[in-house]
Specification:
The structure holds 2 protein chains of 2 kinds.
Chain A (H helix, E strand, L loop, with lengths): L1 H19 L2 H9 L13 H6 L8 H4 L2 H9 L15 E2 L6 E2 L12 H11 L6 H5 L10 H11 L7 E3 L2 E2 L9 H4 L2 H9 L1 H4 L12 H14 L8
Antiparallel strand pairs in A: 1-2, 3-4
Helix pairs in contact in A: 2-6, 5-6, 8-12, 10-12
Chain B lengths: L1 H13 L8 H13 L23 H4 L4 H10 L19 H15 L7
Helix pairs in contact in B: 2-5, 4-5
Classes of the chains: A mainly alpha, B mainly alpha.
């Protein structure tokens, strides 16, 4: 049932987009070889290993539009160990290390194309039901309290970087997450990564509502720090 | 009534039927990031971690853990056995069957069993 609804709303989304602009033409011709534009997310390990780039079929639920427009013109690395991480690591003398020779720069778009693509991507919203469940209150958290929760109490730093050279490498850097991602998406993803991407290698840590709020406020504050500006 | 049945049927059919993956493949995907490609605790993530992941090839340490303890720590995470929060819970990622398979797979990495090596 859910799947049917998703399929239906997605088809409508796609149809709408292709009337609206050339964004979908670009996506289909230049991007669909690496990015899934129609869903569903990988359901088996084989499928998730074969994934060549992040899923974009729920881009409108996930990204901030201003960030998309900028990043598509000047792409920078987000996942230190690429996608799928195990294809980009090798044994090192002290521990496994990233093999940079396996990571290729991302294609860049002109301003006009980036805007057209961002317009189209923002119409892809098959997961709005999950987003609607999240309410971000307007509290704040100090960077030091946030970091304590992120590193010590919840152990998120094991896989994510919270500054350019601190933290784990198998997940995307999070010191830029506040610029890149919608706050409700962050909350929903932390609540259940598997609801977005059933085979992903981020575990559900059963974070409490209060800590989810704290983490989202922290990630938003973190990306406003000067040294994290990109 | 008929409608409800059809609804129910559609619902059941659309439940994700996740296939049971092999422990080796699950280990590659979920454990190698911290426990390492060689299972020796030297994963790509460990540089800044305050508690280092267990060396799964260490027969001495691994033989002190019963299968039930292994099941519990994989399903519920380090905190459930008074260990570090950096060892995550995998109960929402792996089925109970897959976790049991994983505990047996760890025995092949340490070449050990509970109570002896």
């Amino acid at each position: 049932m859910n799947k049917l609804l998703i399929a239906l709303s997605l088809t409508c989304g796609l149809a709408q987009a292709s009337w609206a602009d050339g964004g979908m033409d670009i996506l289909k011709s230049q991007c669909s070889s690496c990015h899934n534009l129609t869903g569903p997310a990988p359901q088996t390990l084989k499928e998730i290993w074969a994934r060549k780039g992040p899923d974009l079929f729920y881009a409108g639920n996930r990204y901030r539009k201003e960030w998309l427009i900028q990043w598509l013109q000047n792409p920078t690395q987000i996942r230190p160990a690429g996608e799928f991480y195990e294809d980009h690591i090798k044994p090192g003398p002290k521990r496994d290390v990233v093999d940079p020779s396996t990571l290729k720069p991302h294609v860049a778009l002109s301003k006009a194309d980036a805007e057209a693509v961002a317009d189209t991507l923002m119409t892809l919203k098959p997961k709005s039901d999950l987003i609607a469940k999240e309410k971000i209150d307007d509290g704040t958290v100090s960077l030091s309290m946030g970091e304590m929760a992120f590193d010590k109490f919840l152990g998120c730093m094991a896989c994510h970087r919270i500054e350019p050279d601190y933290g784990g490498l198998s997940g995307p850097e999070l010191y830029t997450a506040g610029k890149r991602l919608q706050p409700e998406y962050m909350a929903s993803y932390i609540r259940s990564p598997q609801a977005w991407d059933p085979k992903i290698w981020m575990p559900n840590k059963h974070v409490s509502d209060g800590n989810i709020q704290k983490l989202v406020h922290y990630l938003e504050a973190l990306s406003k720090e000067k040294e994290n500006g990109k | 009534m008929g409608n409800k049945l059809i609804f129910l049927a559609l619902f059941v059919l659309s439940l994700p039927a996740m296939a049971r993956e092999s422990a080796k493949d699950n280990y590659r995907t979920y454990c190698v990031q911290c426990h390492g490609m060689a299972g020796n605790g030297k994963g790509v993530n460990i540089r800044d971690m305050s508690v280092q992941p267990r060396d799964h090839t260490d027969a001495k340490a691994m033989s002190t853990r019963s299968d039930d303890t292994l099941f519990k720590v994989i399903k519920e995470g380090g905190l459930s056995i008074d260990k570090s929060v950096l060892m995550p819970p995998w109960g929402d990622t792996l089925s109970d069957d897959e976790i049991r398979d994983m505990a047996q797979y760890l025995r092949t990495l340490c070449k050990c069993k509970y109570g002896g090596s």
